[in-house]
């Protein structure tokens, strides 16, 4: 049975593994091994996930099938880009689903939970950065009403990549 719940400290190790695996599955073919290694070392790991789970400005929801973590979404309060039309907004920092679960509704369930959290927090907008060369993700977000409002640079190792900033009203 599928369950989505907030991450707890005991989830950190498996969550870090899921985060790195899903990022590599999505982007390894389009980045150098060195850039991937550098990015993953800086972005994932049990200690980092523990800090994020304890951070009151970050909410991580994990989707489980039985005991297995199969997807997650992380929302972050913080600086809002000037192109996002809101004084109060939440960022979807990460939303990934294990490759074996693509096309089975997991991403949709996680997005719906993210929208509900944004509503509960009284955010005006939900926003995120999505790589300009990821048409599948861009299409997914468009189905939820996200529209392009700007851009920013996302570093993968030493490679500066252009992300589209997309936003939607809550």
Q: Kindly, what is the distance between the CA atoms of the first and last residues, rounded to a whole number of angstroms? A: 29 Å
How helical, in percent, are the residues?
25-40%
| Binned strand content | 25-35%
| Unreliable residue stretches | none
Question: Describe the biggest sheet?
Answer: 7 strands, mixed
Give the CATH level 1 class.
Alpha Beta
DSSP strand count: 7
The CATH superfamily is known as: Gcn5-related N-acetyltransferase (GNAT)
Order of strands across the main sheet: 1-2-3-4-5-7-6
Q: What would you call the shape?
A: globular
SS-based class: alpha+beta
What does the average pLDDT come to? 96
The CATH topology comes to Aminopeptidase
Compute the CA-based radius of gyration. 15 Å
The name of the CATH architecture is 3-Layer(aba) Sandwich
Domain N-acetyltransferase: 2-170
Protein name: GNAT family N-acetyltransferase
Keywords: Acyltransferase, Transferase
Pfam family, one: Acetyltransf_1
């Amino acid at each position: 049975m599928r369950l989505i719940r907030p991450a707890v400290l005991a989830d950190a190790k498996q969550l870090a593994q899921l985060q790195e695996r899903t990022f590599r599955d999505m982007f390894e073919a389009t980045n150098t091994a060195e850039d991937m290694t550098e990015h993953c070392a800086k972005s994932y790991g049990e200690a980092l996930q523990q800090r994020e789970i304890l951070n009151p400005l970050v909410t991580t929801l994990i989707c489980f099938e039985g005991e297995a973590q199969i997807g997650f979404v992380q929302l972050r309060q913080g600086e809002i880009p000037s192109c996002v039309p809101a004084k109060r907004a939440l960022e979807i920092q990460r939303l990934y689903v294990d490759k074996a679960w693509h096309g089975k509704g997991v991403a949709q369930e996680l997005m719906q939970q993210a929208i509900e959290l944004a509503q509960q927090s009284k955010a005006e907008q939900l926003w995120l950065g999505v790589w300009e060369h990821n048409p599948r993700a861009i299409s997914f977000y468009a189905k939820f009403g996200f529209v392009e409002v700007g851009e920013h640079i996302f570093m993968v190792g030493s490679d500066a990549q252009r992300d589209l900033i997309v936003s939607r009203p809550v």
